[in-house]
TrEMBL record:
Record has Signal as a keyword: no
Superkingdom, taxonomy of origin: Eukaryota
Membrane spanning residue stretches: 21-44, 97-117, 129-147, 162-184
UniProt-listed InterPro entries: TM140
Coiled-coil regions listed in the entry: none
Pfam family, any one: TM140
Annotated PROSITE patterns: PROKAR_LIPOPROTEIN (PS51257)
Protein name per Swiss-Prot or TrEMBL: Transmembrane protein 140
Keywords tagged on the record: Membrane, Transmembrane, Transmembrane helix
Length: 198
């Protein structure tokens, strides 16, 4: 009777381990999907516009202000230099923000591969590196864009695209934290990838 009870407990613990790894993969996949969906919404659907009003449209590719003729006047990059906005800062902000979208896509495909196929340590490390670089480039790009343009940007005028970028950054940090904790907890049990058959 006692031996049967011990077997039942051992089977229950094994089942918990399998379900916790399933929950880990599902949480990673949902965070990767959510982060990429918010980045796509902000940078592709909203065209990277931080402010999207009828009288003002300011974004990574748009800089349109209301003029004296009561119409929206979109300025070119050479006109922005006359206003005191650095061309280098604008280009760097675009590169940093849009590279975070690409890196998050690569991290999502890595997580999908880890969840479905490989389950090795090197893949999780790659996802951690991609998310780390992305978590640095996204706020850097936003800072490089917002600080030179702060006299035209009011907090009350920020659009849904900006809120989506902030939400994507929060999900990105949460996803990175889960992967770091997972790698720390299962450091010894995760196998390294075998490139040659044994």
């Amino acid at each position: 009777m006692q031996l049967k009870f011990q077997r039942t407990i051992v089977e229950f613990i094994k089942g918990l381990r399998e379900s916790s790894s399933c929950l880990l993969y599902l949480s990673n996949l949902s965070l990767a999907f959510g982060c990429n969906a918010l980045l796509f919404y902000a940078l592709v659907w909203e065209a990277g516009n931080i402010i999207n009003l009828p009288t003002k449209r300011i974004g990574f590719y748009n800089f349109c202000l209301w003029n004296q003729k009561a119409e929206l006047d979109c300025l070119m990059i050479r006109d922005l230099e006359k206003l005191g906005i650095s061309k280098v800062a604008m280009v760097l902000s675009r590169v940093c923000v849009y590279i975070s979208l690409v890196l998050c896509l690569f991290a999502a495909t890595t997580v999908v591969q880890q969840a479905l196929c490989f389950k090795d340590r090197d893949g999780w490390k790659l996802a951690r590196i991609l998310l780390s670089v992305s978590s640095l480039s996204l706020p850097l790009g936003l800072a490089l864009f917002i600080f030179p343009n702060q006299r035209w940007i009011q907090v009350s005028e920020l659009s849904k695209g900006f809120a989506a970028l902030v939400g994507a950054y929060i999900l990105l940090l949460l996803h990175l934290l889960i992967i770091i904790l997972y790698l720390a907890k299962f450091k010894e049990t995760l196998p390294e990838r075998q490139f040659t058959p044994i």
